[in-house]
């Protein structure tokens, strides 16, 4: 039950101290799923022109991606429950590689549906990774620092996101006029050749991703990890509960239910804002996709800075009130994005990213804290399932954009979502205590 003699697992599954190398390697996984998350924002812009899609149809990239998370989270948690977190991570990395590999036949078939299938498969692997890694990070050390550890691990994600945007900017997007303006001058075989050429550019980032994944997979296979499974103090065995019992317990847990709703809305809002930032910049005057991509880089830089600053604030003040203030400011900025008449709306969307970072890990860690540890694998999986908000909210925002004929006004969908997240943090802050609430 130990990785070193000085690192011991406690009965509740937490460790007496954090094994540094294992924690850093685990945290690197957060960067690995940050890459495809940001590449999706690139693909939405690329596919919209190549396949001549509406905003709603282009947002189905996110629906396939986060829908994959939703579909596989419970099966992943059951496998992790029967095995361990390390096994879940290894399975996730392997499936992630398979999903990336499917981009190659998709480019040959040149159909939007096949690309969505590849994205869905990749999301299956990422769901395994997140289901295992978020819970594992929170438990890989003393319980009192669980939220801090998860926030530290989440700080790796912006590096992956920035890497994904840079790969998209220099490997997928090309110099010259925007894709839309180039494609509008072509027809017939010329247009078809143009579309096929730019689909091939889509493959380049995934070649490098596969190489990195193979290296990380080998490292995880070779590195020993503690189980971090709660055990019975009477006979030192892992407590076993049925899926039905776990589900019944979680449904009756009011704090957990509220956290799931907040996570669903938060992920949807974050994904929607990022999905349409490049498009917003193009609509408001950016020269081309490569130039517009710079604003995504600024967004992810703000995301990282915001997480870092929030971590400092949350060590000095109640995390829930800090995030309530973040959410209210974010809501105001998104309302400004919706109704501004100039390019400053893009910068407001960028600044909003600085206010998003700490929301996911704080909600996630709180959801784990309010449940009995024998239910923790399923609780973690259901919280990961709430990421399906990323499949729903961007599609709604795309639908609103199509029907209002306004990319900007559709950002009110995200503003409403951020306000709901803020109300969740305020409600949690106003509670007399943070103990499990049962109806």
Automatic annotation (TrEMBL):
InterPro entries associated with the record: Lfuc_symporter_FucP, MFS, MFS_trans_sf, MFS_TsgA-like
Keyword check for Amino-acid biosynthesis: no
Keyword Membrane: yes
GO cellular component terms listed in the entry, alphabetical order: plasma membrane
Keywords: Cell membrane, Membrane, Transmembrane, Transmembrane helix
Transmembrane segments: 20-39, 59-80, 87-104, 110-129, 150-172, 206-225, 260-283, 295-314, 321-339, 345-366, 378-400, 406-426
Locations listed in the record: Cell inner membrane
Xref: PROSITE patterns: PROKAR_LIPOPROTEIN (PS51257)
Topology within the bilayer: Multi-pass membrane protein
A GO MF term: fucose:proton symporter activity
NCBIfam families reported for this sequence: fucP (TIGR00885)
Protein name: L-fucose transporter
Taxonomic lineage: Bacteria, Pseudomonadati, Pseudomonadota, Alphaproteobacteria, Acetobacterales
